[in-house]
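Colleagues,

Please find the record for the four-part complex below.
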Amino acid sequence: MTDIRPGSVTLKDLAAELGLHPSTVSRILHGKADTARGAAAPVTAERVRDLAKKVGYSPDPQATSLRTRRTHLLGVIVPRLSDLVLAVMYEGIDEAADDANYSTFVMNSRDDTLIQRRKMEIMLSRRVDGLIIGDAHLDGNILDELTERKVPFVLMNRTIAGFASATCDDTLGGALVAQHLWDQGHRDVSIIAGEPYASTGVDRTHGFVSRFRALGGTIPESAIVWSRFDTTGGHTAADSILRGTHRRPSAIFAVNDFAAIGAMGAANSHGLHVGRDLAIVGFNDTSLAAQLPIALSSVRSPMHDIGRVAVKLLLGVLNGDAVESVKLAPVLCVRDSSDFTWEAGQEAVTARQR
Amino acid sequence: MTDIRPGSVTLKDLAAELGLHPSTVSRILHGKADTARGAAAPVTAERVRDLAKKVGYSPDPQATSLRTRRTHLLGVIVPRLSDLVLAVMYEGIDEAADDANYSTFVMNSRDDTLIQRRKMEIMLSRRVDGLIIGDAHLDGNILDELTERKVPFVLMNRTIAGFASATCDDTLGGALVAQHLWDQGHRDVSIIAGEPYASTGVDRTHGFVSRFRALGGTIPESAIVWSRFDTTGGHTAADSILRGTHRRPSAIFAVNDFAAIGAMGAANSHGLHVGRDLAIVGFNDTSLAAQLPIALSSVRSPMHDIGRVAVKLLLGVLNGDAVESVKLAPVLCVRDSSDFTWEAGQEAVTARQR
DNA sequence: CTGAAAGCGCTTACAG
DNA sequence: CTGAAAGCGCTTACAG
């Protein structure tokens, strides 16, 4: 009687083999090994555990869930896993869920409200115990609905006032960049701000603008360009910034590394040498930033930990605790793309003009 | 009686509401809407379906699985989801599984044999119907074990002789690069070959070497450098190639875009201008390749489709079909990083020497 | 300390 | 065409 495949041996089999009643076996296997708390005679318990181990018994989770009304399943929704930022956060979730004996479904919504809803329903129909939402939109009435339906959930990556979330302190991150660029002498800056419905981009932009203005700088509305978070989005945005009729900025803050990479490409085609004619700073400090031909300055956000914290928060909610949002601290990493000072009188010129 | 949350209304509830027996309701809801094949009276069927829809009835999958011994769950194991290549493949899986009414668990093994095993057991203990394995090692005895245990599975991304898989035609991909570099005049080439346990790197390298030799070129063993697939791995490998005591190659083929990006970084620090002093070609044509400051030539592999095909194959296996491995065709995309001819007598020099 | 019963929500032969 | 029963594999009061 060896376990060819999980499921081949049941509680009943074990009981029969040992001449016990299934309920007795269940009671023993269910309680933690240390807490013998009168659940069974130590000798019996040992016999049961030994056999269970020997035959590789693994309880049927479907049967267990049916009884307990808990699936130990978590649902995770992200815009897209091909976004490295979300992929890394998910690695954190995977780890933490594993530690807590939960399994996770993860689905891509492509930031589309309809798909978002559909994926959510699929997860709920699978009876997940709770949801981690990584693609919340600022206008997100869907969350109110979830609350009304009493679905346990937390936010990750993006935050919305009134809901528990695990995020980076994006406002602070933006402020760090503003301070850095100001210190390097930049007075004319533009921002590639991401999607207006995502708190990440909005908060980073807001943090940047506030600090820059507090330092005495000015940032007209026209200097803020909304865009997609990917390389193409950044390229397009930077292109429009650099071809602008007014004075060209000497620095660009992109709220996402991939957008920053796209911006570097655009700068390049405008004949600008990033790190000399133009400073660029990204956000997230993904693994590529430091390795690029021109190393990219970026704000490191603890993506992996954000995933872990999201799980922790959700487990708290499932446990009935009152949970507080967590904002993890960002760290600015200065590299070649912005590691130079901009002279007061210096003008932004193209490399060709030099 | 509205469906606040899936699970709030059961088959029994529906039956009671309609004055029918639960088994009748089950029979009606179970059969497809079109096949009324004598399962119930059309009128009854309609009444049932109407109410089910109205109250948002969704069957409890745990209960269903317990009866049918099928979970409609697939397990997916990848080295890491933060590898864009696997992330995109997973998007294909997510889509195809969704279409077929399956849900998927995806877990990261970090290419570690122990973790691989552990994640597999977790999935089996969850009673997945089948497994998609994206991290197979060439020395993979684990697969024989799975076969023995009669676990349905297919491979994705990496292939192993004797098992059904969905992959790119990596050998052909490598050959395309060899032909291209040869045509541009390169006679001295090096290969950043990836991990020796991964068929992807091995096959791409083999395809490259075979074609290059068939064209009359020579490639010493020392020109092949094994490495990790990520940016750092590529950087280290390229560094060792470029600091080599012998003649410096005029072209490098990296079997992965991220390794290629790392190689570009290394070339840079050796004072070489990629696209003039050194040609670099990557593999997979990830979304970044075309956007880099120096656009990267790369072999496009249909990652998304590979994911979809993997699901299709696995569903075939679950259906008892005899399935054949699928190798999808790659396409070479030439860009700035290799779009120049290398003169016969030209010598690889550093930019500084010019 | 252990057993026996009930039941979680379904599906599926089997009657009628 | 519909009903009644059995059972998937577990857990959990309740007895004894």
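The CA atoms of residues 61 and 67 of chain B lie 10 Å apart.

Comments are welcome before we finalize the supplementary table.
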